[in-house]
Amino acid sequence: MGRLVWRAFGAKLRLAAREVNRESRSFVGAWSQLFGRSVERARIDELLARASSGPVAVAVDGAPGVGKTTVWRYALDGAIGRGYRVLAASPCEADGALAFSGLGDLFDGLPVQLVDYLPDPQRRALRAALFLSGAPESATGLDALPRAVLSVLRQLAAEGTVVIAIDDEQWLDRSSSRVLAFALRRIREERICLLLSRRAQGEGTLWPEIRDAFADGVEVIALAGVDAATTHRMLAAALGAKIPRRVLERIHEVSGGNPLYVLALGAELKRRNGSAQDWQELPLPSTLTNAIARRLEHVRAGADAPLFAIAALADPTLAMLDAALDEFDVRDLDDSIRAGVIEIEEERVRFTHPLLASVHYASLPPSERRELHLRLADAVSDMEERARHLALGTEVPDEKVAGELDLAAALAVRRGAPEAAAELLEHAIRLTSADEEETRWARTIRAADQRYAAGDAPRVRKLLEQLLLEQPGGRTSACARLRLAMVRTDDFQFGAAMLDQALVDAGGDDRLIAEIQRVYVDWSANVGDYAGEVERAQEAVASAERLGEPAPLASALAALGVGLFSRGDGIRRDLFKRAIELERSAGESSPTYYLPSTTYGTLLRIENDLDTARPLLEQAVARARRRGEEGGDLIPLLVRLARLESEAGNPDESDRWLAAAVEAVRQDVNDEMDSWVAHVEGEIAASRGQLEHAQSRAEEVLRLAIASGDVQMQRDANVLLANIELWNGEPGAAHQRLRPWRERTIANGPWYVGWITLPLWASDIEALITLDRLDEAQPILDELLKRALGYANPHGVAIAKRCEGLLLASRGELTPAIDAMNAALVQHEKRPLPLEIGRTLLEKGSIERRAKRKTAAKQTLEQALAVLEPLDAAIWVARAQDELGRIGLRRAVVSDGLTSAQERVAELAATGATNREIAQTLHMSSRTVESHLTKIYSELKIRSRAQLATALAGRDLTDSDDKVP
What we know:
Layout: H1 3-23, H2 25-32, H3 38-50, E1 56-62, H4 68-81, E2 85-89, H5 101-107, H6 112-116, H7 120-129, H8 144-159, E3 162-166, H9 174-184, E4 192-199, H10 207-210, E5 219-222, H11 228-239, H12 245-255, H13 259-272, H14 276-281, H15 288-297, H16 304-312, H17 318-324, H18 334-338, E6 342-345, E7 348-351, H19 354-362, H20 366-377, H21 383-393, H22 399-414, H23 418-430, H24 437-453, H25 457-469, H26 474-487, H27 492-505, H28 510-526, H29 531-547, H30 550-566, H31 573-586, H32 596-606, H33 610-626, H34 635-647, H35 651-666, H36 671-687, H37 691-708, H38 711-727, H39 731-748, H40 758-770, H41 774-791, H42 794-810, H43 814-828, H44 834-850, H45 854-868, H46 874-887, H47 900-910, H48 915-922, H49 926-940, H50 948-953
Parallel strand pairs: 1-4, 1-5, 2-3, 3-4
Antiparallel strand pairs: 6-7
Helix pairs in contact: 2-11, 3-4, 7-8, 8-9, 11-13, 13-15, 15-19, 16-19, 17-20, 20-21, 21-22, 22-23, 23-24, 24-25, 24-26, 25-26, 26-27, 27-28, 28-29, 28-30, 29-30, 30-31, 30-32, 32-33, 33-34, 34-35, 34-36, 35-36, 36-37, 36-38, 37-38, 38-39, 38-40, 39-40, 40-41, 40-42, 41-42, 42-43, 42-44, 43-44, ...
């Protein structure tokens, strides 16, 4: 029967199909009817009700055939009954290979306006992915599609509760999984309910990404077999007859109460249609698979070929079966429909349960299976599905088929589906003949690039390692080694070796050399080879200059700026000015992490120029999020902002960025990023005196860094641990830890003085002073002063002068020590870091107390408290309070309910100082000053600044040299 005849015959066919479906209703009804499960139904009803006020996630979990789909459909009916909008997809095994098949099902039938109102890049990406406007002519950005899906879901949720329902999640295609996971991880308050059914211990790609994404977690409803009474009810409904008790008990025992198994055994009983005695003696299949196979044995022989085709097709229709199969007759399917094996809806045909499809497909011999796929390739119209059938039907190398796979992969790239593109290319690699090695190598590199884009680092590694076994040489080898280095963050020494050889293999390819050297600059820091940074960056710049393109040159100039900074040359603003100008002309192609403006912001933060660094890093985070960049592209930026705000004395902002970093790293399987986040967690905890937590995070960083060979992070972890030891009263341990790393830094770099490198000198000086080893501390101080003054970082000079004051005080030279502390405070003003200013004030006040300058000491220590208390800097707040207690002067008291910081704010506000002036004087943020004033007004029962001076006039604000009674 020809394809055109089907249209005219369609009405008659549908009537016939409905009649046959009606005959099969007993078994299909028993299959789809929800027997028992009262506890599960109640829980689903409760969760659906909760979804109207915020996000909810439910996973119906269980073994094959246990009734997951039936429970899932019950939940769907409940959602529809509540008036929720339901987006549903029921992928089958064949669907898992087709890009965005699941997303297409979910979004099928949505109003077109939802797409049209999206920003242009998102609109184009969504239309390309779902073929809403034909095949795309150019690639869409990988970030645009996930953001488009998120935008659509948020818009729908603003209108009412949305249920995203996916049956058999383990077969959802990887492309859909990626974009849905991106969107679902960003659900916060939206009225969105995720409803999954999935096999226990299934291999689905969505579940690992979202199981921890929801604030309340995913509610897992684990299904077990039904009880004997429910088994009886199911069989009675299916067979329409009374079943002997002994037979029922036997069926329940063999099946374990698995509904699909029960009904398969029931079908065998019905087929026999014998007496009760026959039923009792009937041999029962010992496994579910065997029971299904036996059931399939008894359908009409002529149905075999159509059933095999239905099982192999992603979206089978009667027209496809007619086109693919010779002498296809729809009447051959009657027995299968009556037996509840398949069902027909309009022209679509499907198995009533996926296990029926997989068992039947598996029974086809491999040679016949390949022949079937070749026939199906001519019946389908979708390029990607055709290419896959050709691949599955072809065993020996065939360049024509490989070429079609190449074209289909290119289309998948343009649609924003790197997972699908990689799979198609891997089929093409298999079908490339041995004598076409250059073609095979090129396809392998492209497949690795698509796996990398999809975030599948293990597969990238496997592809490239296999390629390098063939010793390709030249540009192919260079590309493979570069990409392999980029995914081997677990072993930086190995990565460096790969990059060394890649440079040799690259020959005179300037584009490739610039790219390799740019990556190598980062690797140099990780392996502690700072001396090589500048040379490699200079080579990258030279290659990029010859290439004459803005993006590679901008990146290379930024890398050179990093190398020169590490060498101790400071920030070369001329280089970064040129690089950022080139960045603007290069467009949106470069990853945010490697942009010169991002690098510039990072170096400014290291130099403690926080106000200049902040907007650059905030812009970088905004761009990365807009582009959908995650993992190693986004996490370092969040970490740097968390650290910046901690140093700036903004604990709430710091916590916000840190929480974002923790959330991001939770979704990213990457030991390097784990160590970055753990390190900043430890730093912030230590700055607040939470030393036990800080130590556990620092030890985790050290473990990860040693495992990967990351020398830079080993140093950073040891510096943090040494500080913790010092503040825990273990100066000897701190000195032993710092000394080798300081000596290594002197020998190998980095040679700048700031952030991590500064404590190598400063904390060791403090440790040696505590140990009363003053003669050992002096040369370290001399070197620190020389480095800090030569490098011209005011913060470094301030810390060096503070160390000088501590050493002088330890020798009893108290007046010169106070002078050194005053000099440190002058430098602090140029790079105001509140915690360090508070610590310097604390040390100065302590020395003033020892020098019997009680009033001065009291004022200095109260100023220190005013700085330290808003930072939650517990260790130093306690020390300042202890020092004040030793002075013996009555403290100025505004109100018993005010802290020292609030007292200082009140005093300055009463003099007429503005909020900004108060913030500058006390080294606070303006926001903190406003918060303090609110508390002060409440305590003094006033409503404005104008009433403050009057309210304070009657309070005891005078100092006295008398002892406190």
